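look at this record:
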Amino acid sequence: MRRLIASICFFFSLTSPVWAGAQMPTSSPSPSPDPPYWVDPFCSVAADYDYWDVPSNRGIDDGPTSYLLGRLYAHGAGVSAHVILLSDTDAYDASISTQPLSGDHDYLRHSTQFLIALPNAMQIRYAYVDSYQLDGGAVVNCPTEANHFEKGIGQNAPADIKTTPTFAASFRQKLPTLTCGKVYRAATVMRAVSPRGIQTGKMLQAKIAIYINSDGSLAKSYVYKKSGVDYADALALDAANRSSYIAAQFLCTPIVGEYLFTADFEP
């Protein structure tokens, strides 16, 4: 299903740390169990990409020489996806046929590498999974939760470039003229709640992943990086959940996104 470009999100923007002094709390919150790190309430399929320039002496000399090298990530046996790629001025479509997934069944599984052939040499700035089918099920549309990336994220070369699956990207639409002056604005915390302090003999730091709806409300949270003390993690999670946020914006439109809430506990 085709949709106009409306929203995109950037993965994790960093907060300034919220400090907590060494004082005893009056009650004991119960820490929530950590879900697997890849659980995303907005879209169950993710992708990553790197640029891959295919020289003519590698056997591919008819068509574009600028490619993206990609992988899909999901929890299942096989996945297909419709992805959208954005340059500074234009949006492009690419449909990835069903790719088998491998890896640990208890965690995020990955497809083999594939290539996306770009219509011409260009700098892709953002990309997102627009829709997907997992294990032959129904098509699921995702809110546009994109990754901002630059050249060189470090994927290894495919074992055989000639047999690597290749999918063509096609022009979708021109991007709208900006009225707000900036392509992307990261999500921010509007009111940060400080966690209650604990007695500790050393500095502790916990980081909480926050999923933010396009209206700024909290969609989900979990402990992204533990402090080493469960009780401190629970206090940080509680403070993050009680804080309020301003949603990110892309192309002047509020979007879903993620934010990293950092809590430091002083000794």
